[in-house]
Amino acid sequence: MKGLQFVNRTGGSVTVSGRAVAAFGRTVRGQLLAPGALGYDDARKVWNGMIDRRPALIARCADRDDVQAAVAFARDHDLLVALRSGGHNVAGSATCDGGLVVDLSAMRQVEVDPQARTVRVDPGATLGEVDKATAPHGLVVPCGVVSETGLTGLTLGGGFGWFSRSFGYTCDNLLAAEVVTADGRLVTASAEENPDLLWALRGAGHNFGVVTSLLFRAQSVGPEVTAGLVAYPWRQAGDVVRFFREFTAAAPDELGTMLVLRVAPPAPFLPTEVHGTMIAMVVVCLARESEAGRRAVAELKRFGSPVADTIAVKPFVQHQTLLDAANPKGRRYYWKSHNLRPLPPAADGVVVGLGDRITSPFSVVLAMQVGGAASRVEPTSAALGHRDAAYVINVAASWTEGAEDERHIGWARDCWAAMQPFSTGGTNVNFLTAEEGASRVQAAYSPESYARLARLKRLFDPDNLFRCNQNIPPEEVRAVRVATG
After folding, report:
1. For 83-114, b where at least 16 C-beta lie within 10 A, e where not — what string?
2. DSSP 457
3. Taking burial as the number of CB atoms within 10 A of a residue's CB, which of 85, 434, 452, 483 is the most buried?
4. Can you tell me the mean pLDDT for 370-378?
5. Is 397 found in the same domain as 284?
6. Whole-angstrom Cα distance, residue 204 to residue 474?
7. Whether residues 268 and 386 fall in one domain
């Protein structure tokens, strides 16, 4: 292999000889893909079609030994390095221009221990793959709402979904992880070993190393659940938003609930007369059968004059794919998100206004209720902050043509500004775009947690090798002046 030109960690240029690249290739079981290689163009693509980057080299790792070799290669040559597991992050941090991509997407094994109620997951596994492995045992790993999302990235950023109110965030169910650190060591993060690192992995992203295995506590759910959606024509949107606000205020923890505002897709469960028109939907998933849960679902099914009602008993793995069609790989995406306080009546018209101004038939406003068990977790158990959030709202612009970027991005920003008066000021790192900067990353944590993360970053990654992420720079070591007499 000929020599390759790389971008280094500080943005400069470095040439790595063909001999060094070939030696790296001999140490790994997986593939090395350079520009021009068969499969390179497909491998460099991520979920968000707005991200079009060209790494100098992609290391498609087959196992943790490959990961250690890739980290050593990046460290020895001072390379810019990006980590890819699912590649579903909206910011596109799973790839980079001119650097090395450590691609974990081929490492997808899932091992379920039904007696211990634990699940060990490789870093490239998706939510859907984990759900299919756990469902036969009546278990779940509480995670997100799109089955093609990578579980590793979701977990390290916090992770919430249908079962967060019952069992906490995804990171709250993380028991242990294997991590390749910046110096090439393979370490375990658990309650017994490196507990500070486990705390950091519960919400602070890929800042501290390459996760090669995760161990989760599994929860008893299903395999069948009561779940689905009720859809309403846009003329009822104001009433639906008011109902959602009042309904969720009294909802039991076992009921996961989401408000969706969007243009109706040509889905078979929607009547043709509403296709292409604005609709409001309330989506629910009941983690376990209970009298309070059944009453809540019945209340929703009685409300208003819906155009569709798909709520029924069904396999959870089926419900988990409900939003997949709205999030295909390769479309252009731009998100803005808030953590919200309990919503006052004054918010109803503002929320409806977000949909009134929608600019793309693919864009969506999602408001998911959180709180419940997620708000009762001991705050010091995880880096993830802002347990006081009652809802998370995600204004998700989605479109196909690059010439329309400004219009749709402008809509998302305007919607975010309109909802700011109801925000807690916090956010979730998984929803941040690349442009949002250090202040928004800090807003994802309490001041005390961010300071602790910066100290841990100095311990585990003092040179900030892992910086292609929502980055937490290492704490600066300040010189101490010693007085002499």
Report:
1. bbbbbbbbbbbbbbebbbbbbbbbbbebebee
2. H
3. 85
4. 90
5. yes
6. 13
7. yes
Domain end marker among 53, 80, 103: 103
What CATH number is attached to the domain comprising 115? 3.30.465.10
CATH number at residue 8: 3.30.43.10
pTM, two decimals, is 0.92
Across 470-476, average pLDDT: 89
Q: Rounded to 5 degrees, what angle do the CA atoms 114, 115, 120 make?
A: 50
Write down the pLDDT at residue 452. Answer: 94
Question: What's the confidence (pLDDT) of residue 286?
Answer: 95
pLDDT at 482 over 90: no
> Can you read off the two tokens belonging to residue 365?
């406003």
Helices (H), 180-272: 195-201, 237-249
Name which residue leads in pLDDT, 242 or 476.
Answer: 242
Cα 368 to Cα 237: distance, rounded to the nearest angstrom: 17
Does residue 341 surpass a pLDDT of 60?
Answer: yes
Give the C-alpha separation, 239 to 137, whole Å.
40
Provide the residue range defining the domain that includes 311.
Answer: 224-439
Burial of 321: CB neighbours in 10 Å, binned 0-12, 13-18, 19+: middle
At which residue do the structure tokens 């021009």 appear? 36
Residues 197 and 243 in one domain: no
The length of the chain is 485
Report yes or no: 156 and 172 within 8 Å, Cβ to Cβ.
Answer: no
For the segment 113-137, the average pLDDT, to the nearest whole number, is 96
CB neighbours (10 Å) of residue 188? 15
